[in-house]
Amino acid sequence: MTDIEIIVPINISGIWYPIYDYDIRKRGSIGLSLVLNPSILVIPSKKEESKIIFNGNEIHNFPNLEYLRKLGKIQLNIKSEIPLGFGYGMSGAISLAYALASHELYNINLQEALITAHVSEVLSNNGLGDVIAEYYGGGLVYRKKPGAPGYGEVEKISVDWDVICSKPISKESTEILIKTKNENALRYISEFLSNKTLKNFFFLSRKFTEELGFYSPYPNSFRKKGLILRLKECDEGWIKHTPAMNGASVH
Ligand SMILES: Nc1ncnc2c1ncn2[C@@H]1O[C@H](COP(=O)(O)OP(=O)(O)OP(=O)(O)O)[C@@H](O)[C@H]1O
Ligand SMILES: CC(C)(CO)[C@@H](O)C(=O)[O-]
C-alpha cells in the first residue's frame, strides 16, 4: 500500500459527436457533458500483477487493462458510490486513475500515461471523451476538440448550478454510442452555445439522446445509455451530484 490517494470525477455526456482520426491520440468526440461528484476514490499500489478491485471485488474482463498494464503493474483499490457500465464514464475514470498512478508509482511520463488512458478507452470501445473531461473537469464541459489530454481541448462553461440527480437503470455496452453518429449533434452544440444554461443543456441532451432511442419518463431529464439524469428533482434512492470543478487530483 502507498499513501497516495487519487480522486477522479465521473463524466456524463449529453451530446456527443464521434470524430475519427488516423492518429488514435486525436480520435475521440466533441460534445457537451457534466463532470460530477461523487468521484471515485482510488488507492494504488505496485503489485506482481495489474488488478482492478472495485468496492472490494476484482473486476475481471476490463478490456482497457490490456493497454493500461503497459504503464506498469499496478493494483487499484477503488471505492465508488457509482456503478460500472451504466454510462457514468466509469471506465474512463478507472483508466485515468491508472495513468495517474503510473506517474506517481513508476515515474511514467504524465503525458504518455494520459494518452494511454485515452487510447485504452478508444480501442476498447468504452469511451471517446471521458478521460479528457475527467482530467480537466469540471461542471459543464464543452469538448471542442477531440482527443487525449494534450491533443483535445475542453472548455469549462460557467452556469448557475441546480440540483442534479441520477438513477442507474440498466447495464449496457458503450459500443453503440460510439459507432452511431447523429449529425444533429453539431447543431445542438451550437444551440447550447448561444444559450448556456443547465436547463438548455438538459433540453438539448434529451432531444439528442431520444434521437438515439433513449427515453426518460421524467421532465427536465434525459437518458444516457443505462442511466437517467434529472434536473431539479431528487427522489429517494437517487444519486445526488455536485459539479467537480477541478477534475482529477492526486493527494
Ligand atoms: N461487473 C461489471 N460490470 C460492468 N462492467 C464490467 C464489469 N466487469 C467488467 N466490466 C467491463 O467494464 C467496462 C465498463 O465500461 P463501460 O464503458 O460499459 O461503462 P461506463 O464507463 O460506466 O459507461 P460509459 O463509458 O458509457 O459512460 C466494460 O468493458 C465491461 O465489459
Ligand atoms: C461515447 C461516450 C458518450 C461514452 O460515454 C463518451 O465517451 C463521449 O461523450 O465521448
UniProtKB/TrEMBL annotation:
Q: Which Gene3D superfamilies match?
A: 3.30.230.10
Q: What keywords is this UniProt entry annotated with?
A: ATP-binding, Coenzyme A biosynthesis, Kinase, Nucleotide-binding, Transferase
Q: Does the keyword Kinase apply?
A: yes
Q: What InterPro entries has UniProt attached to this entry? A: GHMP_kinase_N_dom (IPR006204), PoK (IPR012043), Ribosomal_Su5_D2-typ_SF (IPR020568), Ribsml_uS5_D2-typ_fold_subgr (IPR014721)
Q: What is its EC number?
A: 2.7.1.169
Residue span(s) of domain GHMP kinase N-terminal: 69-138
UniProt pathway:
Cofactor biosynthesis; coenzyme A biosynthesis
Q: What class of enzyme is it?
A: transferase
What does the record list as GO biological process?
coenzyme A biosynthetic process
**Keyword set includes Transport:** no
Q: Which reaction does it catalyse?
A: (R)-pantoate + ATP = (R)-4-phosphopantoate + ADP + H(+)
Q: Name one GO molecular function term.
A: kinase activity
What does the record give as the function of this protein? Phosphorylates (R)-pantoate to form (R)-4-phosphopantoate in the CoA biosynthesis pathway.
The entry's family comment says: Belongs to the GHMP kinase family. PoK subfamily.
Which protein are we looking at?
Answer: Pantoate kinase
The species is: Sulfurisphaera javensis
